[in-house]
Amino acid sequence: MKPCPSCGTDIVINEGYPLWCDRCDWNLAIPAKIHRSTSWERMEVKMRHSYGQSLFKELQEQQGLLTKKGMRNHHARPRKNGASHD
Question: Which residue ranges have biased composition labelled Basic residues (predicted)?
Answer without folding.
Answer: 69-86
